Amino acid sequence: MNKAKRKAIIAGNWKMNKTATEAAALIGELVPSVKGAGCEVVICTPFTSLCKAVELCRGTNIHVGAENVHFEKSGAFTGEISAGMLVDLGVEYVIVGHSERRQYFAETDETVNKRAKAALAAGLKVIVCVGVTEELVRMQTKIALQGVSAEEMQRVVIAYEPVWAIGTGRTATSEQAQEVCAAIRKVVGELYGQAVAEATTVQYGGSMNAANADELLEKPDVDGGLIGGASLKADAFGAIVAAASK
Ligand code: PGA
User: Fold this and answer.
1) Along the 246 residues of the chain, how does pLDDT read in single tens digits?
2) Which of 70, 92, 98, 107 is catalytic?
3) How far is the CA of 98 from the centre of ligand 1 (A)?
4) How many CB atoms lie within 10 A of CB 184?
5) Which of 3, 86, 90, 192 is the most buried (most CB within 10 A)?
6) Which residue among 9, 13, 67, 99 has the greatest number of ligand 1 atoms within 8 angstroms of its CB, and so is best to mutate?
7) Collapsed DSSP state (helix, strand, coil) of residue 64
8) Does the annotation count 63 as an active-site position?
9) Ligand 1 center to residue 75 CA distance, Å?
10) Closest-CA residue to 156 (of 6, 36, 15, 49)
11) Is 70 designated active site?
12) How many angstroms separate the CA atoms of 96 and 94, rounded?
């Protein structure tokens, strides 16, 4: 597999952290810290910070994403946000199927698939999260991509996030991350063929930090990271971006 064929992407997942005011301050620190990065840099913020983030990241190398999206275009879905609403704000990415959504908000493989398709149809780039065992990861990947075209796969990133590594400080070994990221690429290959598999960015997520990023990112099938805790500190996030830029 040729790593040069795909984009390394480091995406911050801020989760339910930072008010819009605090977000503005963090972005102010992030802009200089990731300037000139050799990888794609994304920050996924709470809905309430997206407007500010889009405004402050305009003209920089930071791309802005949301952390979730509803699959319907509009209607009686109190509290939900549609893909069209995100696009209208200037948002470029969205995370779907994060394990916290699956665990606390009744997200299923089917709704992950519906959200991914709705987001792609609206023109967003999608970071699909899958996790747990290799067998489950294969199944989650297949279901999440049902009905997604090969052309749309250019806007799909898959993040392997073992649940036990999220927010625990316990990271997968680089060998484990490599093995599962390679398995995900294999599934993409079975569904779309070799060329799409080689072009698809597969990230690792789960306690990635400045100290372990190098080792994880140097693996041939680990094309980037989805970063929770360490994305809330400009220096730590900057160091991970630097590791992915090598
Ligand atoms: P963590 O979170 O980096 O804090 O483990 C990763 C994630 O949940 O995306």
Assistant:
1) 468 778 899 999 999 999 999 999 999 999 999 999 999 999 999 999 999 999 999 999 999 999 999 999 999 999 999 999 999 999 999 999 999 999 999 999 999 999 999 999 999 999 999 998 889 999 999 999 999 999 999 999 999 999 999 999 999 999 999 999 999 999 999 999 999 999 999 999 999 999 999 999 999 999 999 999 999 999 999 999 999 998
2) 98
3) 10
4) 24
5) 86
6) 13
7) strand
8) no
9) 32
10) 6
11) no
12) 6
CA distance 215 to 219: 7
Query: In whole angstroms, what is the distance from residue 156 CA to residue 139 CA?
Result: 17
Which residue is listed with tokens 């605090």? 22
Predicted TM-score (pTM) of this structure: 0.97
Centre of ligand 1 to C-alpha 29, Å, is 20
Residues with CB under 6 A from ligand 1: 13, 161, 166-167, 205-208, 226-230
* C-alpha span between 96 and 101 (Å, rounded): 8
